[in-house]
Amino acid sequence: MDYQNRAGSKFGGGGVASQSATNADRRERLRRLALETIDLDKDPYFFKNHVGSFECRLCLTVHQNDGSYLAHTQGRKHQTNLARRAAREQKEGRDREGVLPGMGQTVQVRKNLVKIGRPGYKITKVRHPLTRQSGLLFQLLYPQINPGNEPKVRFMSAYEQRVEDPDKSYQYLVLAAEPYETVAFKLQAREIDRSEDKFWTWFDADNKEFWVQVLFKTERDERYSNVPGLAPFGARR
Question: What pTM was estimated for this model as a whole?
Answer without folding.
Answer: 0.48
